[in-house]
Design a protein that fits this description.
InterPro entries: ComF/GntX_DNA_util-trans (IPR051910), PRTase-like (IPR029057), PRTase_dom (IPR000836). There is one protein chain. The protein is α/β, with parallel strands linked by helices and about 220 residues long. The chain has a single domain, classed as Rossmann fold (3-Layer(aba) Sandwich). The chain contains 9 helices and 7 strands; from the N terminus they run H-H-E-H-H-H-E-H-H-E-E-H-E-E-H-E. The strands form 2 sheets. The chain has a 5-stranded parallel β-sheet with strand order 1-7-6-2-3, with helices on both faces. A two-stranded antiparallel ribbon has the order 4-5. Helix 9 links the parallel strand 6 and strand 7. Helix 4 crosses helix 7. The protein starts with a helix and ends with a strand. About 5% of the residues have low confidence.
Length: about 220
Amino acid sequence: MEKAIFIIKKGFNLFLEILFPSKCLSCHLRGIVLCDDCVNKLHLTERETASNVISLYDYRDPIVKESIWKLKYHKTPYIGQRFGQLLYKELIEEVSSLQIFSQGFPILVVPVPISHDKKKNRGYNQSEIIARSFCYSAEKSIFQLKNKTIVKKSNTIPQAKLTNRTRRLQNIKGAFELSVGASVKGKTIIIIDDVTTTGGTMLEMMKVLKKNGAKKVVGFAVAH
């Protein structure tokens, strides 16, 4: 059912593309939000991330920063769909390694949740858009999207507004919990987010998942 809804939405997005074709955010080529040539020019991150967290691009790259800003604040979910595709394509070797841990069972994909108010204002959770596209980029059904496995139990100060690492980590501490009825025991899990800075958000989610019996948990982020 969920996949059918995704296909319907994808068809609707295609219809919108025909009426109002998107342009590459870098070279302005029509028909794609980030063309392959410009993607190949994006700076990959070289900065160290938190343990078990892998990020793809350097957030200081102007096009990466602009893309994520538009995704979060300008109602452009198709940017998230493109990032989901790229995340799967570039991290496919890491995914293959995780399949060993999953032992033939689907890998659970959990997007970082946002508050109800933020989702209402934005119209969507950008991490969920990325995660959904990431899942459906695989040729086989090796993933299960679990967008309600972890919930944010308290509203926190937006991490982007805090420049101090210690304050960021303290701000997010204890902010997440496992949803009622959710089961992660023995599961292999990928947490998906748009941007990771200190890694505090993903590390807090990892604590919750491991505490409830998850076998292996890693984080994938578009940028750092």
